[in-house]
C-alpha cells in the first residue's frame, strides 16, 4: 500500500508561511588558536559571539559591518559551510546546526551562496555551460528539456545570452561573471540565498545593476536573501531589515527605514555618516563621525561594550558593563547604554 499523504490544513499552511524561513539563536563560532609542539589551545578567535535573528520568507536581511566583524563567518554558518561552536541554525523548521555534510546534501538545493569574488569563484577551465549546469549534475537532477536548455534559460534570466553557453569565464567582465555565479545558484530554485559581498569586487558603475538584478529575481522567484555587505549604501534599497555587526555581535537590528532614518547605535551612526549623500540639499545636514582606528582583534575583544575603544560617547559604564540588547522601538533592537535618537518613550538605559 502506498504512503498516505495528509494534506496540510489552511491553518497549518498559514502557520508555515508565518514561521521564519531561517533563524539563528545564540549562534557562536570560536576558532581555537593553538601553539607549541603539543598544539595546546592558547585562546580562541571569537568570530561570531552569540547572534539571535530570524529571516522571514521573501524578505531581505542585510548583515553589515567592517571587515573582521564576523559577517562572512555568519554567512558560512547559515549555509553550514561551517559548523557552529554553540547555538542553533534552524532552516525551514529543521535544526541544521550539526547535521553532517551528507545530511546537508539535499538541503543544498534550498540553500545557496553567492560568493564575493566572481574571478576566483568560477573555474577558468570550465565553460559557462558546465559551471551553471554543475548543480544539476551534483544533485543528480534532470531538468525537463535537458540541462542545456535549463542552463540557457538561466542565462537569459540573469541577463546573459544563451549563446554564452560554450564560452569561458575569462571572456566576461566582472559584472557578467557575477551574473554567471548567480545563474548557478538559481539552478535548483533555492529558497534561501546568502550573498557574501556580492558586488564589492565590482566596478561602482556595475554594482547597482547587479543589486537590481538580485531584487528582480527575488520578486520573480520568491527568494529570501541574507546579503552580507561592508557598505550600508550598497544594500540600502534592497534591504527589508538590517543587522549591524561589530566584533562578532549584532549591535543594532531593525527595519531598513528605521536603521537608516533613525540609527540608534553609535557604530551605525558612524557607518552612516561615512556614506556619501547624493542629494546636494541634504549634504552636510548629518553629523560627520569619524571612526578612529581599526576593529580590535576578535582574539581579545574589549570587555563590556566591545565598541567602547572607538566610541565617542563612551563612559565608564561602557567599559565595565555589557549593554543588553533592548527593543527601543517596535522591532528595533539596540545594544547600547546611551543610544542615539532614543525618543522620550525610550529613554537611554541609565
Ligand atoms: Fe558607545 Fe557606551 Fe553605547 Fe558602547 S554602550 S556604543 S561605548 S555609548
Structure overview:
α4 (128-138) packs parallel to α6 and α5 (147-157) packs across α6. The protein is of the alpha/beta class. The protein has an eight-stranded mixed sheet, sandwiched between helices. It has a four-stranded antiparallel sheet with strand order 2-1-4-5. Residues 1-5 have low confidence and may be disordered. It has eleven helices and twelve strands. It is globular and about 65 Å long. It starts with 9 loop residues before the first helix and ends in a 15-residue tail after the last strand. The protein has helices at residues 10-18, 71-78, 101-104, 128-138, 147-157, 174-186, 204-221, 232-235, 256-261, 266-273, 316-320; strands at 22-35, 40-55, 60-64, 86-91, 94-95, 111-114, 192-196, 224-229, 241-246, 249-255, 325-329, 332-335. Helix content is 28%, strand content 23%. Bound molecules: iron/sulfur cluster. The site of iron/sulfur cluster has 12 residues, from loops.
Distance between the termini: 67 Å
From the alpha carbons, calculate the radius of gyration and give it in angstroms.
22 Å
- The dominant shape is globular
Strand order of the largest sheet: 6-7-8-3-9-10-12-11
Sum up the structure in keywords.
350 residues; alpha/beta; 11 helices; disordered N terminus; binds iron/sulfur cluster
Could you outline the blueprint of secondary structure elements for this entry?
Layout: H1 10-18, E1 22-35, E2 40-55, E3 60-64, H2 71-78, E4 86-91, E5 94-95, H3 101-104, E6 111-114, H4 128-138, H5 147-157, H6 174-186, E7 192-196, H7 204-221, E8 224-229, H8 232-235, E9 241-246, E10 249-255, H9 256-261, H10 266-273, H11 316-320, E11 325-329, E12 332-335
Parallel strand pairs: 3-8, 3-9, 6-7, 7-8
Antiparallel strand pairs: 1-2, 1-4, 4-5, 9-10, 10-12, 11-12
Helix pairs in contact: 4-5, 4-6, 5-6
The structure holds iron/sulfur cluster.
